[in-house]
Every structure is written in structure tokens, then in C-alpha cells.
Amino acid sequence: MTPLSLFLFLSTLLILPLSAEQAVTYPSTKKWDYIGCYNETSPQEIGPRILSGGIDEALPGMTVPMCLAFCFSNFFKFAGVEYAQECYCSDFFSLKNMPVREELCDMPCVGNGSLICGGALHVNVYQTKGGRRNAAAVQEKGFRGRWGCWLALGVALAVAVGGAV
Ligand SMILES: *[C@@H]1O[C@H](CO)[C@@H](O)[C@H](O)[C@H]1NC(C)=O
Ligand SMILES: *[C@@H]1O[C@H](CO)[C@@H](O)[C@H](O)[C@H]1NC(C)=O
Predict the structure, then answer these.
(1) Residue 36 within any structural domain of the chain
(2) Where is the signal peptide (predicted)?
């Protein structure tokens, strides 16, 4: 090997792992747990899709965070990305559909090529932390928030009165 070809060989070794842009599975977040790659109900099969009875959208700018935000703001318990640009939100997660090898969820998101958005009839499924439930959890938070306001008002009044005396 000439020094030049050795140099080229070594730089190829260095550059290849850096340049190979590999899409990765979007990990769990503060609000969502990543559950895994699951198989979708095939069109030939009679039965609900894996995440059914909720809402869905397919957007040319789809990313995993976008799908999670969409499902979270609509108070759904489960979110799934499929086929590069589809997003499903549901409170029902079919028990018939099975976890499959992670490699089968292999399509980069159309809106962000460095993230995986499911595959053909394969879905990356996410679940809200602590089994967050529909509207109930939100009402509870609002209730606590209101009491927090009253408490703050009480403290402010006490300080004002105390200061005046
Ligand atoms: C995929 O999910 C369907 C439910 O639609 C199930 O009947 C089937 O056994 C699953 N196949 C695999 C390979 O997990
Ligand atoms: C794509 O996703 C990665 C990983 O989450 C993130 O760092 C990057 O900012 C995203 N890019 C765009 C354009 O959203």
C-alpha cells in the first residue's frame, strides 16, 4: 500500500460511520413510553386495526414528536406511527397485534429522515406515562390548579394584611 492509499483507506473507515445517516427509533419522553414495533392488522384480515376507534392523520411533514403531540393534545392514551407519514391516536390497543422485531419498523419519517416512523404494516407504538386517562386527568389537574390559585391569593392577602398592620 502506498501512503496515499493507506490514508484514503483509513479516512474511509473514519468517515463511513459518520456519514451513514441512520434513522433511529424515537425514544421514550417525559410524557410517553415507547412500547415497541408491532404488526398492523393486514388488509386481508377481518378485525380492527392495532390502534382503532380514535383519530388519525397522514401528513407530508410527519415526525414522531408531531404525532405524539397530536395524540397528547387530543387526550389519547396510545399513539402510533406507520408507513413513514401516518399517525394514529387511540385509547384501544388491540391485543391481537403482536410485537415484532424492531428492524421491521424501518421507514424514516417523511418529515425527519433521522427518525423511524413505523414501516409497511408495522407500527411504532407509544403509550402515555402512568396510563394517563382521557379527560379525567385533565380535569383533576385543572382542579388542583384552581386550589393552587386560591392558596396563592390567600398567602398574598395574608402578606398584605400582615404588612398593613
Ligand atoms: C399480526 O397481527 C395479527 C392481528 O391482525 C395477528 O393475527 C397475527 O398473528 C400477527 N402476526 C405476527 C407475525 O405477529
Ligand atoms: C430530527 O430528529 C432529531 C432527533 O430527535 C432532532 O435532533 C432534529 O432536530 C430533528 N430535525 C428536524 C428538522 O425536526
Answers:
(1) yes
(2) 1-20
